[in-house]
Amino acid sequence: MAMEINSGTAVGRIVAAMRQQHWLSLALLALHGALMLDLADPLARALMLSHFGFFLLWQPLWRGEQKLIPSQVLLIIGAAVLLIAAGSWWLMALWISVLFSLIGGNVPGIKNLGRRMVSLLAAVYLLSVLLAWVVPHLFPEQDFPTGLLAVVRYGLMIPAAAIFFVRTGKQQVASANSVDLFYSLLLFLMVVVLVLGAFVIKEVSHGNYVVALAQALFVIAGLLVALSLLWDPRAGFAGIGQLLTRYLLSIGIPFERWMHSLAALAERERDPDKFVIVAAHEMSELPWLSGIRWQSRSSTGSAGDVSKYATEFTFGGLTLSFYTRWSPSPALMLHMRLLARLLGDYYEAKIREQEQRQNAYVQAIYETGSRLTHDVKNLLQTLRSLCAAAETSNESDSDALRLLMQRQLPQIAQRLQITLDKLNTQPPIGNDSTPAAQWWETIKQRYAHEGVIFEGGSLPSGTSLPGDLFESAATNLLQNALEKRKAQGQLRIVATLQWDNGFHLSVCDDGQLVPEGLAQQLFNSPVQSNSGLGVGLYQVARFAREQGFEVGLSSNRPGKVSFTLAPMKKAGV
Fold first, then answer.
1. Enclosing H/E stretch for 505
2. Neighbours of 486 (CB within 10 A)
3. Phi-psi region for residue 305, left (φ > 0), alpha (ψ -120 to 50) or beta?
4. pLDDT digits over 301-357, tens only?
5. Nearest Cα residue to 523 out of 543, 551, 504
6. Would you say 347 and 276 are in contact if contact means Cβ atoms under 8 Å apart?
7. CA distance 259 to 418
8. 3-state secondary structure 519-546
9. What is the DSSP string of 374-410?
10. Nearest 5°: phi and psi at 564?
11. DSSP character for 170?
């Protein structure tokens, strides 16, 4: 038992030490052994099975840790059965052409000298065995000189075996995108054209295979020279290269049209969340996208259909998930990143623009407050002067003092009323503890003549509430309801104060609902107001959070619009 364990451990260490180049070398050597035998021979089929197994260990198409789906498993099993059971030289020519394109298409992107040497040796072996051994077997009664047999059987083993001993430096994990589809496809087509061209020329001319192969090579070389001249000409023509590059970079989508639409939308829509929603719906109509999901700082949504291929990008405060109908290629990934970056930059610009508008609004309020403070200072100075006159007067000055008061006090009252009319939003000034029943009776008496209905259960005796907060909230909510009554006609306004693990104050009316866009901004930012500064509920909401309360729109439907001040809910409750 100990020997079996040690043996298994040694084999495991050997397998773990194997690199991709080792599996490639073993795959080529097994393929070479099978090609040197009759394809119908059982030993040749066993070698082909070994070759396919080594190929799966080397393959650059899937990551080693990736789980295969059932369709991929069926594809692998079907390819193995077809490759082993067919025993056809045509199938061998096709398989070797595929291997050559997989290996050769990756050579331009390899920078490491050792790995480049491995790929070049494998490509040389595959192309040599294809043209010198496999293709001649496609012709019936083809004779092989003794020298050619020796070179093919023993000489071609040298590059396949040399791959095993090439030093490639530090081993790297194979990437899922290590195969360049475009280059591999071009190489595959070139090899297929070369093989079929040589085959057709020999069959038509009934000449020598070497001559037919040379003629095919000359024809392909001429076509490549003509293509290279058309690729980047010097006569003013844009060239096939530029046309092809422009097509590949656009990936067949109206990119410029979408850019113009995005720029026009940015000029038209000021709200960041609405901008993202409209832009995402327009982007979901791109032909290569099946759906899109977005998440901004205050909104989440989706458009289109969700697929299993999702690509996520995050720029600033915007997260975009693109869903495609197929696995995205590197070029498509580049385009998706560009689209997401553009939309994210526009969104951040909208956020900054909104913050600048809010800062300008707050600055305007600050300047207004400064002017009002200056007026109050002047009034205070006048009152101090009157007080000083009263303190220094005697009985003989009583008539003059009375006349002075009669002239100045109405003016002071009028100026103070004007100042208060300008500052019609009462800011929160602090936190104090006020008996709840006393405060509630005071509010009832103050608004008794306004037709406000006050309801509420019995309040616990001896309880107190933060007077400044509830005074500010009640004043703002009731004043807003009264202003709404003036605009919409007779409304039923109900104010309620209840105890439920804390005091809950609500003001409800039976008027029209609050627009959705305005409802989202009431407690988060200043809003436009025709009767005030538009910051009352915003200031109350900030003050409430500081005191452990929250203000919200508890009901927003026609006939029941209710605002509530209640203790803040704890996390998880």
1. strand 503-509
2. 9
3. beta
4. 888 888 888 888 888 788 889 888 877 777 678 778 888 888 888 888 888 888 888
5. 551
6. yes
7. 52
8. HHHCCCCCCCCCCCCCCHHHHHHHHHHH
9. HHHHHHHHHHHHHHHHHHH--GGGHHHHHHHHHHHHH
10. -130, 135
11. S
